Every structure is written in structure tokens, then in C-alpha cells.
Amino acid sequence: MKKIFLTIAIFCFAFSFAQKGQSYLQIGYGSICCGTPSIDPVMNYVNQFQKKNKIKSIEVLKQSGLGREGEFNLYIGIDALSKTQRPIFIKGLQAAVLSQNAKRKQNQDGIVNFEEVTIVSNKDLANAKNLTIYKK
Known about the structure:
The protein is an alpha+beta fold. Helix content is about 40%, strand content about 25%. It is built from four helices and five strands. The protein has helices at about 1-20, 40-50, 85-100, 120-125, and strands at about 25-30, 60-65, 70-75, 110-120, 130-135. It has a five-stranded antiparallel β-sheet with strand order 4-1-3-2-5. A hairpin with an 8-residue loop joins strand 2 (about 60-65) and strand 3 (about 70-75). Helix 2 (about 40-50) packs antiparallel against helix 3. The radius of gyration is 18 Å and the shape is globular.
């Protein structure tokens, strides 16, 4: 009986701490006619920031199935960042998104939406459908 209780306790403890992220930035990828834009500019920035600042890992979640042409959202965890790193990261992320939107063809390429003031919590994502961990 003690072994069963101990096993259940360890499982519950591991499960509760497996999802570390509590705060996420949301980036939406929308389509106009010909599919969504690439996530490469955003992910390149995230990877560069992570390497430059020696951060172990930045959690990235992907929610797919939001539209007929492959629309999706990325959720980037910011809990691994210090309070001084967060505004720098957000400004750089915003610059990457603005640069990508400036280079697109207006009538056919999709658009990337990012509102830096919107923070999504882990509770908000608890009931989200089609949410997976993005593998870099």
C-alpha cells in the first residue's frame, strides 16, 4: 500500500511541475489567400536570444487548426526570462514581426499578429484545443 501511495505521489508531483510556464506571449499567424507566413524569423530571433543570454530553454507552444488555410498561434513562454530580459526580448520579437510583415506581398502573403501587452496565462491555455509543444 505504501508503494502505491508513493508512486501516485511521485506521479502527481512530476505532473504538476512538468508544465513550468505560467506566462506566454501570443503570436498569431493569419492567411489572406495563400497560406500562413513562415515562423522562421520569429524562431530565429528566439533561438539567438536564448543563445546570447545563455537561457536553458524558452518554452514554445503551437496551437494549430484555427482556420481553413492553416492559421495558427504560437505561445512563447517568458517565465525563464529575468525582469530585465523581458522588455528586451519583447522589443526584439516585435521588431522581428514588424520586419516580416513589412516584407510581405500585401494581397497574397499572410500576416503575423503580435500584441506585446497581451500576456496569456497557463490557465487560459488549459482548455485550448490542438495545443502542442513546438520542437525547434
